[in-house]
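Re: the 366-residue chain
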Amino acid sequence: MIDFMRLILKLILSMSRLLVIYSTRGGARSILSENLMLRQQLVILNRGRSKAPNLKTEDRVVLAFCSLLISPNRLSKLAIGVAHSTLLKFHKALVKKKYSILFSAKSKGKPGPKGPSQELINLIVSIKQKNPKYGYPRISMLASEVLKRPIDDELVRRILAKYFKPAPGGGPSWLSGIGQKRDALWSVDLFRVESLCLRSYWIMVVMDQWSRGIIGFSVHQGILDGGAVGRMFYEVMSKSGRKPKYVSTDHDPLFRYSTWSTNLEFDGIKEIKTVPNIPWSHPFIERVIGTIRREYLNDIVFFCKPYLERKLFEFARYYNEARVHYSLDGATPSKKVSGRGLDKIALSNYEWRSYCGGRYQIPVPA
């Protein structure tokens, strides 16, 4: 704190000295010459530097304070560049702080219980492992009976969702028997993202279960209700020019509005609900959302809705045309639909095609 105050005092003294020099005869010319000399010294000192300097806290404060006194037209020429990774870290920290303020406990008292004991967690997980067909209500009743104290079924559900990992290779999803051709079954779900200005945007993603391809996206800013969800779905359907026979949705309250159900019935689309509280019963769309977040949205920042829509369109094009899928044995969704996938290349002669602004590079024939 003492060093910081000393730095501010030096800054005030330097500004006072400049004002005195400027008020004298030939002062403006002297200040201009001095600035040019200092700038040339910086150019000479930085000629051999290949790495950006590390700024201290005092340096950042001084630069921020000086930026308030500089006109906007000059600021763009004097501003210090910030790396893309630094901007992403700053944005993620702001988003984390926003949700901690919105959803953290308001009271400052002593914290409550930390949750179930490790012994209870081990018991519930063991019951599920030894009895795979038991649901969380039956496990709750069994645990209550053997422990002789009530165990809430919602507590059991949360424990299983966090600690129980089923063995891989459980067979195909029950939805696979319905989506046996194109546009037979569409999966629909919603997720939320934050802009650089910390504004929340809802994204609806619609995919075709048979081809694993993305039908389209729809973006909404503001409060969601049944009417807004219906408009988002019909926006995707009108842009694609296609119509499904079945639509698969989860038990989100947004898909329970009468407006949503009435619009589907009017168009002859049948809605299929997943198994309650079991995300594995809706695997395809959940995997798509995870892929979009991990491989794209977590590494970009956006300011407004049109920019986000353009970025999502670019990712959908890459996802359908160039991204190979495990569930399709290495094929792309476009190959599943039209029979034409990625072109064959020769190892001696090929070039690269970029997607998503150069984020992904796919080899193509030269």
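The domain at 178-338 is CATH 3.30.420.10 (Nucleotidyltransferase; domain 5).
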